[in-house]
Amino acid sequence: MDAADLTLDELRLALAPGVAGAAVFDGWSTEAVDNAAAALGVAPAVARIAFPGGAMDMIAAWIETIDADMAKALPAQRIGNLPIRERIRSLIQFRLGALKGKEEALRRALSIMAMPQNARRAARTGWNSADAMWRLAGDTSADYNHYTKRATLGSIYAATLLVFADDQSEGKAATAAFLDRRIEGVMRFEKAKARLLRPRDEGFSMTRLLGRMRYPAR
User: Which residues form the COQ9 C-terminal domain (predicted)?
Assistant: First the structure.
């Protein structure tokens, strides 16, 4: 599709990867937008209109494109047979792969998102990404688990991004090890929570045991 035929929303997403690439050198700025526009053959003035909110619009669009690429590359039917921890690991690793070579843009983005005036939007953006990952992982929970799972995954992903951004180890091995530890910790917590919350009649009951001792089944 010709760039001239795109809506502003479509143009914003089309420009986002180029803006992220330029942000490595130019930061999340109008210069980055202009460079992305030139690569796409779009007038800079039109491209700037696609990001009325400035840097946060650029960053949010970049994250949205990663969400979309992740959904195309790892649909539920492709990873559905994996253990849940492997599904989550695969989804996060895909996202980290999309960030390789753009660590400086990521560092700058994280700094901007951490600003008080951007906290609410940054939290919403992170929630959306965590929700997208859980849905691809096959989660259909609708109770409080829906919220706790996304909050937990969001915190794991955010912490992993901080490690990734400054990881100088070969093949980002330190990031992979960090992610594995965090996922393993969450899996242990979820198992413990499931045991505590399972129905009473499925758990151990001293009263039932004593009753059986007194009145053995015939």
Answer: 121-190
